[in-house]
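In the design runs reported in the main text, the only information available to the sequence generator was the tokenized backbone. The following block is the verbatim input for one such run; it is reproduced so that readers can re-run the procedure and compare outputs position by position.
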């Protein structure tokens, strides 16, 4: 919830309040660069420590950071630009840990036969929260001076007039949200099913183990990287391009940005509910290739579309394709990467995605792409990028489908309990 509210308020604040789309591009590049090395260490940390404790660490960190910056805003009456940029970068780094840790934890406590189902439920829960946070973020940041708010593109009448919240007020709410998250997580009790042996080597040696695994299993590296291309572009459009596209090309306001994100979340929810049924007669690799082709086509459509309804439909389909790909991708990786190194291999994939994002953001943040409606050319670049992923997976399709699952040892088979591995 906290990440969703923050990530709708900050991009719109820089793009439309401060009128600094190029400056926001630089901040996005800085945040992406910081996550480069952090993503690798995060993978080591996820495999080294109790994953519940990792969750508690990032929620505590988010609470402290949000609270301090919020108090600064109350003291000064407004927030300096650098403090807002600091929050944005911090949320980026928390985001880099959150999902890899969540999936590693899910694999650790789940029987292999239930991988697809648990990943789908994670997606449903996550996107429902995202939709709620986007709606709340739009109301808080945009307010409702006329007594109406835009929800999924429709005007909804409220019983009262709401003033827009200041950023530091929103950050205080987010600090409380992080605190509540930490309290809820502290009550979780679990028993791992996957065996993780303690590693006493140094950080670099443990980091190297992730690279070594992917070097020995190059097909998994190819699949894990190519299937991440959609996610790379979704991060770029969601955190950077969409506010510019909505303002310069569609010539709309902040409510459209929030409504698009909600349609995206609804599409993701639908994917969580029905993606495995839709592709029940196909394998995961074929499903991802098909969805990559679909997302590429949507980016081409974005170049010429000026109709708001079509834009919302694109958001719905993007959400479906992104979440559907993530469900299929993680199911495949769960079956082919042991829990012992799932965090570190995820860190490697995240680092590759960060490098790709840096390159793409560097290109599309040039003044040419943010002036007028030239932002549409950025979507052409993203379309070709995702298309190349579909082509790469098609080349290795037969070998990827035939790749056998890993032989991870399950604790249930060895009669071990949680206390025997919890120390590491």
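Verbatim output:
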């Amino acid at each position: 919830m906290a990440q969703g509210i923050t990530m709708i308020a900050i991009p719109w604040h820089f793009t439309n309040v401060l009128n600094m789309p190029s400056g926001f591009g630089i901040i996005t590049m800085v945040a992406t660069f910081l996550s480069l090395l952090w993503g690798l260490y995060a993978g080591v940390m996820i495999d080294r420590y109790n994953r519940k404790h990792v969750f508690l660490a990032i929620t505590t960190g988010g609470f402290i950071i949000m609270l301090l910056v919020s108090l600064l805003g109350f003291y000064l009456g407004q927030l300096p630009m650098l403090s807002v940029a600091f929050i944005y970068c911090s949320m980026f780094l928390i985001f880099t840990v959150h999902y890899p840790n969540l999936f590693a934890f899910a694999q650790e406590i789940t029987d292999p036969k239930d991988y697809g189902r648990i990943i789908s439920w994670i997606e449903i829960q996550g996107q429902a929260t995202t939709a709620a946070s986007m709606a709340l973020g739009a109301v808080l940041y945009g307010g409702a001076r006329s007594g109406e708010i835009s929800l999924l593109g429709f005007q909804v009448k409220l019983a009262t007039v709401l003033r827009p919240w200041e950023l530091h007020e929103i950050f205080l709410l987010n600090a409380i949200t992080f605190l509540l998250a930490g309290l809820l997580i502290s009550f979780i009790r679990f028993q791992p099913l996957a065996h993780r042996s303690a590693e006493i080597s140094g950080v670099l040696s443990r980091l190297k183990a992730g690279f070594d695994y992917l070097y020995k299993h190059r097909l998994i590296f190819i699949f894990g990287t190519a299937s991440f291309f959609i996610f790379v572009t979704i991060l770029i459009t969601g955190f950077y391009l969409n506010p510019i596209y909505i303002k310069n090309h569609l010539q709309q306001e902040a409510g459209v940005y929030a409504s698009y994100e909600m349609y995206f979340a609804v599409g993701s929810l639908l994917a969580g509910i029905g993606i495995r049924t839709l592709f029940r007669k196909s394998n995961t690799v074929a499903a991802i290739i098909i969805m990559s082709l679909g997302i590429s086509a949507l980016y081409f459509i974005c170049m010429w579309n000026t109709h708001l309804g079509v834009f919302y439909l694109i958001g719905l389909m993007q959400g479906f394709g992104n979440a559907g790909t993530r469900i299929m991708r993680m199911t495949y990786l769960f079956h082919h990467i042991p829990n012992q190194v799932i965090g570190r291999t995820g860190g490697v994939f995240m680092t590759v995605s960060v490098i790709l994002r840096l390159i793409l953001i560097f290109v599309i943040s040039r003044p040419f792409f943010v002036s007028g409606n030239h932002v549409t050319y950025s979507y052409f670049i993203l379309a070709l990028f995702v298309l190349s992923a579909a082509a790469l997976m098609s080349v290795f399709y037969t070998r990827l489908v035939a790749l056998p699952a890993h032989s991870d040892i399950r604790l249930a088979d060895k009669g071990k309990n949680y206390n025997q591995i919890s120390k590491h």
